[in-house]
From TrEMBL:
<keyword id="KW-0804">Transcription</keyword>
<dbReference type="InterPro" id="IPR050204">
    <property type="entry name" value="AraC_XylS_family_regulators"/>
</dbReference>
<keyword id="KW-0805">Transcription regulation</keyword>
<dbReference type="Pfam" id="PF12833">
    <property type="entry name" value="HTH_18"/>
</dbReference>
<dbReference type="InterPro" id="IPR018060">
    <property type="entry name" value="HTH_AraC"/>
</dbReference>
<dbReference type="InterPro" id="IPR018062">
    <property type="entry name" value="HTH_AraC-typ_CS"/>
</dbReference>
<keyword id="KW-0238">DNA-binding</keyword>
<dbReference type="GO" id="GO:0043565">
    <property type="term" value="F:sequence-specific DNA binding"/>
</dbReference>
<dbReference type="Pfam" id="PF14525">
    <property type="entry name" value="AraC_binding_2"/>
</dbReference>
<protein>
    <submittedName>
        <fullName>AraC family transcriptional regulator</fullName>
    </submittedName>
</protein>
<feature type="domain" description="HTH araC/xylS-type">
    <location>
        <begin position="169"/>
        <end position="267"/>
    </location>
</feature>
<feature type="region of interest" description="Disordered">
    <location>
        <begin position="261"/>
        <end position="285"/>
    </location>
</feature>
<dbReference type="InterPro" id="IPR035418">
    <property type="entry name" value="AraC-bd_2"/>
</dbReference>
<dbReference type="GO" id="GO:0003700">
    <property type="term" value="F:DNA-binding transcription factor activity"/>
</dbReference>
<dbReference type="InterPro" id="IPR020449">
    <property type="entry name" value="Tscrpt_reg_AraC-type_HTH"/>
</dbReference>
<dbReference type="InterPro" id="IPR009057">
    <property type="entry name" value="Homeodomain-like_sf"/>
</dbReference>
Length: 285
């Protein structure tokens, strides 16, 4: 399964067993493969290395490589395949004379902050209903790897002006009016007139949340209105507001509101107010 857009994310479970023959291969896309489990040998421009959980393979298009299974088989990876224009903004242009060579190294050892992003991406991928969140996590992963390789993303000077707020408003307007459908980062950045990574920074600075977080909050807000004002089944409401999975809707609603949808619907306003006061007591001097 893969999610298309600026970042395509999919998992790969290697079917090869220990001692399988080694075959020369070549990367066809710019990608980052994070090892989830297992151990295997990897040989590319930098010579042979042994990779295990937490290592990252950094792929440039056309780069030759070999995978060996001298110790075990059945390794598992999560792979992030990038739109090259979006990646260039994060790690810089390839060196002159080395077209499409975005990564100077083919392997990055485990880095805790990068591992944290991998775990979050795996959880989001398993939920299966928010490509926007996966794109945000994928770009954050690439930016952190760029920093680890000494190629930090460009940081334009923040601008506090009407044009910036208008750009964010255009994205907010789209989310408000299209929250029931799948929204992509490139679509939101496009209506804002900004590059994807710059859009993420500006949106967070102006609103205090990421685009995915705002989209989720908008969907939950719509669900609250339908639960309050209609008698429609919870399942119908979940799909109508943009959730692709009922269990994910219930878990998200509980996390955001403090109770599952059915309980919110059946609790009286007075009881809900009392419950909220108990959950969030008034601060005292």
């Amino acid at each position: 399964m893969a999610h298309a857009g600026l970042v395509r994310v999919f998992t790969y479970d290697c079917p090869l067993a220990k001692g399988a023959p080694v075959e020369p291969e070549q990367f066809t896309h710019t990608s980052i493969s994070m090892v989830r489990s297992g151990v295997f040998g990897f040989r590319s421009d930098g010579g042979p290395q042994l990779l295990t959980t937490g290592f990252a393979m950094l792929a440039n298009p056309g780069q030759p490589y070999e995978i060996s299974h001298e110790h075990a088989g059945g390794d598992r990876c999560i792979i992030f395949r990038f739109d090259e224009a979006a990646l260039e903004e994060l790690v810089g242009s390839p060196p002159r004379g080395a077209p499409r060579r975005y990564f100077a190294r083919a392997v990055l050892p485990p880095v805790p902050r990068i591992e944290a992003l991998r775990h979050l991406a795996e959880r989001q991928f398993a939920a299966g209903d928010s490509p926007l969140a996966l794109e945000e996590l994928g770009l954050a992963l690439a930016a952190n790897i760029g920093v680890s390789l000494g190629r930090a993303p460009k940081q334009p000077k923040p601008q506090d002006n009407r044009a910036t707020r208008d750009s964010v408003y255009a994205a907010l307007h789209l989310i408000e009016h299209a929250s029931d459908r799948e929204l992509r980062l490139d679509e939101l950045a496009g209506v804002a007139g900004l590059s994807p990574f710059h859009f993420l920074r500006v949106f967070k600075r102006e609103t205090g949340v990421t685009p995915h977080r705002f989209l989720t909050q908008t969907r939950v807000r719509r669900a609250l209105e339908l639960l309050r004002d209609t008698s429609r089944p919870v399942t119908d409401i979940a799909f109508d507001v943009g959730f692709g999975d009922l269990s994910n809707f219930i878990n998200t609603f509980r996390r955001e509101v403090g109770a599952p949808p059915a309980r919110f619907r059946t609790t009286s306003p007075r009881d809900w107010a009392a419950r909220s006061r108990t959950a969030h007591p008034t601060a005292r001097d």
